[in-house]
Amino acid sequence: MHAASFRALGLSAEYQAYDVPPEELPRRLQACQEQGFTGLNMTIPHKRTVMALLDHIDPVARVAGAVNTIRFDPEGRSGFNTDIAGFLADLKARTGVTPAGLRVLILGCGGAGRAVALGCLQSGAKEILLANRTVGKADQLATDLLAIPEVAASVRVLTQGVKEWTSAASSCDLVVQATSAGLRPEDPPTLPGAAFRSGQILYDLVTTPHPPTVCVAQAAGATAVNGIGMLVHQGAAAFKIWTGLDADLAAMQAAVGCDGS
What is the tally of helices (H) and strands (E) in the chain? Predict the structure, then answer.
């Protein structure tokens, strides 16, 4: 999608993908900087560990505890998190709502889940419920959120177990599926149909066309979308960080098969 935006804007640039083992990250980061790269994207499992290798970290990324975009400047390496902007922009574009005043359940408290939680908090969510297979990770996220000055939302951690998650989800206005469940066709849904109802929204960060949790939620009458639009919007934000230009959103959407609706 970045290549499509480069072409649409007439820029002579390339976007390349690298599979980098964790132990190779410092060396590859240095090599890219020396080779004159403008910047990079980071994905799992590097979003948190790369922060120790940066010279400057944007305040939003620091609070989110994860960096997904790096820009190489004369002053050094700067890290940003565009997942938050991407999630909020696509949620509004495709469902017509923002988290303001909503009761939100977030399933998965890794890097993406942290970004979503912070976005919901900043947007005025009424209550944020956190669920994670490792409860300690959810506890840490709750502690970090409540440490932010002037937090208005209630933040609560759910104990491990699909039964409690199902009950909590059914009472929430917005459910965000931020685990990796759904990346493989054989993955089961994160929640059963009883977790969903008409008038509710499920946002699944998985970018595959028909994630299992999306299918279950739609069958129960909820509005449910996958994360392909978030991918585009966070990419557009990264594009501007690197180039200083607004990305061609339509070109990026066409490149990934997303119509923006």
Answer: 10, 10
